[in-house]
Amino acid sequence: MSGSLPVTVHPPSPTGGRRVRVNGEILGLAYNVADVAEFLRRAGFEIDPMEIAVSPLIDWRGVGPEYWGPEPRSPSG
Could you tell me which residues come within 8 angstroms of residue 47 by beta carbon, excluding any fewer than 6 positions away? Predict the structure, then answer.
């Protein structure tokens, strides 16, 4: 591995949900931690859903596991 974490949870999309990648492959759009746990289970990772938020395997981009979108609209938009 090139030093990057195998699991990436991208920032929330404007319509809600976060893209999940494992080793560069998109697994799907997660709307909560349980979705991430299910994607990882299907990809062969054995991880307790209660540990998803603190797992050293996961790179949470933009924000942590507490926010899933959609992005709040700006007052001017």
Answer: 37, 40, 41, 55, 57
- pTM (2 decimals)? 0.83
**H-type helices in the chain, by residue range?**
33-42
pLDDT tens-digit map of 31-56: 999 999 999 999 998 888 899 999 99
User: 37: domain range?
Assistant: 7-60
Domain-located, residue 76: no
Which 8-state DSSP code applies to residue 65?
T
- The number of folded domains in the chain is 1
**How many residues are listed for the chain in this entry?**
77
Asked, for residue 74, whether it belongs to a domain, the answer is no
Q: Is residue 50 part of a domain?
A: yes
Say if 73 falls within a structural domain: no
The 10s digit of each residue's pLDDT in 3-31 is 567 999 999 999 999 999 999 899 999 99
